[in-house]
Structures
1.
Amino acid sequence: MGSRSKNLSDLEPDPVLDPLSDGAIGARQATMGHRVFVAIKRAIVHGRLVPGHPVSEAELARQLGVSRQPVREAFIKLSDMGLVEIRPQRGTFIQKISRREVENARFLREAIEGAIARRAAQVATSETVRPLWNLVEEQAQCGDLPDQSRFLALDDALHHEIARMADCERGWRVIEDLKAQMDRVRYLSISSATPASTIVVQHRDLVQAIADASPDAAEAAMRHHLREMLTSLPIVIEHNADAFDA
């Protein structure tokens, strides 16, 4: 069994939440509510808020230095995403990871991102491909036991850049909503199932296909990359059984 994440009772002096940030949008656009939402979502994805355990609205508000209202609003959004469960008269609980939801999200993501990779290859130029190579090399420099947060941030940045290259920002926004459950598994899989070097090799193959302006190869590489989850998921569940629905 993998090591368990911290319970809420263990928060001091090591807070479970990161400082408020702007997330993926600019500081001028980022509302306080959005920043609170991003901070709590990140803590769930990174396992610092333990699946199946209660979460205190008041405690999270205290850690973030905000009123309880934005935390309450964040809980509603996170409930819609399947990350928390709000139980009337009982409180809010971190949802365990649903294998079915992970597999459904992966299926949809493969369909969307396969098409995005195909379009990216159709419009690729040496100038637009350069940022992709830079991101892959940054990931490679993380090594086989990387800081998961940084490694996965670079992973997301690469996929986002491919969507931007394909002029499909809306597609990426759809993916961001879909992949919350997948992200929880991705975070666990680096330490227990999928070596970082495997992901880097898959990313290199994907970017090479885009650089070669080969739509068929780019789509196939993206689909192959996203199917890695099918291999890693049973291993992740075996090592982190308490984090998943029975």
Note: Residues 15 and 63 are 7 Å apart (CA to CA).
2.
Amino acid sequence: MITRMVSTTVIKMVEVKTSKANLRNKMKQIIKDIPNPERQKQSKKVVEKLFNLKQYRNAKTISIFLSMKTEIDTEPVI
């Protein structure tokens, strides 16, 4: 009985891991397929919202990463 429960749990864990990997790959492709003009438009909106946040305006320091090609452009913040 315990072996059966462990086997079922392991199978479910593998299924979850596989589902998560498939979802990650699907999302990467969706993001990759966003046309550059749309990405630039959305990047501008995100940066404008960030600059308007009270927390951002009151911050003495912030942390930010350089963006990758398929990500929101963080250069205006830097």
Note: Helices lie at 2-32, 36-52, 54-58.
3.
Amino acid sequence: MGCRAHNASITDFGGVGDGKTSNTKAFQAAIDQLGKVAADGGALLLVPPGKWLTGSFNLTSHFTLFLHKDAVLLASQDENDYPLIEPLPSYGRGRDGKGEYAFKGRYSSLIFGTNLTDVIIIGQNGTINGQGASWWQKFKQEELKYTRPYLIEILHSDHVQISDLTLLDSPSWHVHPVYCSNVIIKGLTIIAPTDPVSPNTDGINPGLFNCEVLA
């Protein structure tokens, strides 16, 4: 998981770091395009200084998402920016969902990946801000049909690194690696109010079995 042969900036795909413009399509377009060449030496997407509002997007293999120290990813507060995905097999249902909806799906995480290999999310202490207050309020008022999105969730993947970032105010868990192997998580600063202000905003919540954890 070293240097990448192919590099691009989110601005190359129309990204606007003004804190107001939605960059969901720009992030997904950038990752999809880099994914076409990532098998040949890997690919890196740079998020430069600015405030980058975005909804959920999916990662690809042999890929690095790199946040500049003055870059802030701002998570959209619009539920429509988070596609519904299947509940985790180990849960069988959504954790927050009510009634029949709990079994129908959950909101995809802000940064999501599944069935990947060689994935890095890293920064010079760049920030990912989940802007979770509206989600916390809806949860406490029982207004959500589906489980809240996590900030970062990686499933069924191998050789994953998440490091040198500041993570703030996730709608729910901040980092959730599950059914993964060879995972490195280090150098994270994770900040959220304590429960009950921000319910279930665990810092790092791995799904583990048959694993060795090295600290």
Note: The CA atoms of residues 111 and 152 lie 5 Å apart.
4.
Amino acid sequence: MGKEEFSWHAPLVEKCRAHCAKIIYWGDEENADIRLLGYDLQLNQTQLEIEADGKKITFRSQLIGRFNIDNILTAFGLCSALKFNLNTVAEGLRKAGGAPGRLERVVDFMDEPLESPVVLVDYAHTPDALEQVLSTVASLPHRELYCVFGCGGDRDIGKRPLMGEIGCRFSDVAIVTDDNPRTENPDEIVNQILAGITATGIEQRSPAWLKRRSRGERGVIVERNRRNAIRLAITSAGPEDVVIIAGKGHETYQLSSRGRLYFDDTLEAKNVFCSWTRARVAKSVGGKLTSDNREARLLGEVLTDSRVVGNDSIFVALKGEKYDGHEFAAQAVENGAVCLVVEKEVVLPPGKDVSQVIVTDTLKALGDMAAYRRAQLAKLCNQTVIAITGSCGKTTVKEMVAAILQRKWVAGPDHQEDCVLKTHGNFNNLIGLPLSLLPLSLTDCAAVLEVGMNQPGELRRLTEIVDPDVSCIVNIYGAHLEGLHSIEGVARAKEELFEGTKGSGTLIVNLDDPRVSSLAEKYEQTKITFTVLEENLKKNPDMWVTDIEFADIGGITFTLHSGMEKEDIHLSAAGEHNVSNALAAAAISYGAGANIQEIAAGLADFRPADKRMEILQVKGGYRLLNDTYNANPASMEAGLKTLRQMAGNYCVAILGDMLELGETSGEAHFELGQLVAELCIDDVGFIGEFKDQAGKGALAGGLDKENIRLFDEKGEAVQWVKKLVIQKKLGQDGLLLVKASRGLRFETIVSELISQ
């Protein structure tokens, strides 16, 4: 039992004595059975000296904070009562890491040392708990304290100002973010937290302030996105600082109006620790790091375009036929780069805190960085990396595989959103492939990568970078003959993918392509085979199809077989070749762990690219952006920005509902209307259940009422566009965007406009 200062102490002792129970006392009093002789509290450990049974025991614990000393002494008492050897107890407590999410330290586990803050994750989500955690940590030796916290929704709103005041009282930098908003408006929760901060006199500042702040300068920042808030805190803090991420602790989810979604504070912090440092860049490329006094600080993304604004980014100066990236290094620095990967040291304006890593070949260095990241993450988590090549169809197959795997790892309580990384567009060469792979993170379950080539040796290098777990050559035809000379040359070059796949990998084999099938026979890796042709069923394929039917509108149905299992497949794509593409995607996904039901669901989700920002020339003389595949707030923004960017003198949009937004639908469509006005779209027509909210948003944003149309039927929108053409508002220099969620079938609008 502990000190007698607790009110429950004396009554409990009397009850124990009444039952003739043995009582073991711990504390720092001379008569304590387990006596604390001394201790030293640090941020990363606690040193203790204990006396028990006449013996002195000195050891270190990973647990920190004065309250954990009481926990340790209690554990000693319990073990003493059980007659355990106390030296053995001390050794066990030395290794004990404490409860998950209770002042749990997130450690940097990469190979290279990192000058990083101490990062602690704690469950504190009430004023009392937050005060205890912050006061405990504030009493330990440190330089500055950063605190990331928020308040849960549908809970006592009176505690929110208290949380704000406590968070700022103990912190040098407080970052207010979303906790579990549940059904409440997160902005209102934040405002209620800020009300308590206002009374402290601590100034609210922008995230950019962290870059220029002086040590000791205090402030509070609002960053609603919890992932961004965690990254902001860790990358802004330095050695000897401490970052507290409070509120969720061991929880691996976030509750909001969107439901229960996977989110893990500890994993997010680990992801930040996986960021690049100057030393890691130099190690990954085998380069020479020039003068630098902050080589272990965390950096941002890797860029090859000097025009892109980054945040502490790394600029790789590539040399091309027309441009030399070295000539644009200064521009990259102005846009936020703090580390340059160059073949020769470049002269920069004075006063820039920029490091340079000197290499012999920056193109090779870019690939080396991607390979290094892939190898490092492979040590830390279980990810499936897929490489797809072929003479044609590889982009379609890649998109199909991604759709399937998104059904395997569905965003929700168990998996984070966007946990399947994939090549965007056809970034599949020695530049695009590394840029596609470099964003790989601990939260990704898989990466689906397209690899291309136009000369021998390219695929060998790309395979070396990717180190695929699953490899597929979709087909081999006479492509890139200028560099490969013959179809045999193409086959030899494609074979480099199979040749470079590790022994534990899986090869996906198209039995309908004799060249692919022949190449695969040379290798011992596990193989998954597939065929569309009935004649190849005698080869006992792992996956095959029957009952293929082609719909007049372009869809395909067939039955997919895998062993004794089968599923009906509905594919929204035209052309017989897409049956083979779908079967290749099914085999790849099966190799990645997807079952046949997930394969069927993913292929049903797949849509070809012809409805994604497809540029069509219409008989009326204007151009049409057909982006009718689907819509959500982010894609609407992208579509409208593209419209504005590409338009000449006049731009117009027909926009329909964004479906499946739940309770946020009204707000989202109002904001859509505001965005239309903000981007100065000349005319807009809204259709759907939420057209009124979108129209109100456009009005609120400043668009004139005469430029806003609300339609009950799609045919009305078609007639409106026809009038715009007749009035010569929409002509050769005009651009029309048509976009809505899939359920509204806006492709019918496109069809009517094209036919007129």
Note: The chain has a mean pLDDT of 91.
